[in-house]
Amino acid sequence: MNPTNSTNPIHPANPKLDEETISTQPIFEGKVISLQVDTVKLPNGQNATREIIRHPGAVAVLALNGDRMLVVDQYRQAMGRTEVEIPAGKLDPGEEPEAAAARELREETGYVAKSLRHLRSFYTSPGFADEIIHLYIAEELESGNMALDEDEFLEVSEITIEEAYQLMDENRISDAKTMMAVYAWDLYRTTGRF
User: Rounded to the nearest 10 degrees, what angle do helices 161-169 and 176-191 cross at?
Assistant: First the structure.
């Protein structure tokens, strides 16, 4: 899936709904995101304001070790609690998504994958953010050493599909990328394809 492809014959682009950007006002420039306020011209000719978060993009890895999926338990300040997630992280400037996926897997879990394949790319919140996540599947794993960032603290574990659904029921897995990975993994287990 290429989410930036607007030539999909099933649902082609609809230019009559396009909004024209009249002006952009930068509000904040951070380490991970920036915020801007755009004034746009609507299809009916009226003006409107759009608050936009810019993000460099990210990767996430559905890492399978036999019949188990690698997850990390990590505190998330925005949520005020720990969350069980698949390994993930933002793209470095100029970094290709596949290289970032391999890097994040190694850094967060210590594992290296002999097989790394792109599954899907998706936008997290297109109503106000341009963050895109590239989801990869990693198989044929070999253990190694973790290389966490200095401000990164997490615990790695391996869970079964049943445990993944239990963690979802308990709201311990509640982020979209991990839930999508669990559903993709379940589809893979039952059909042999994603």
Answer: 140
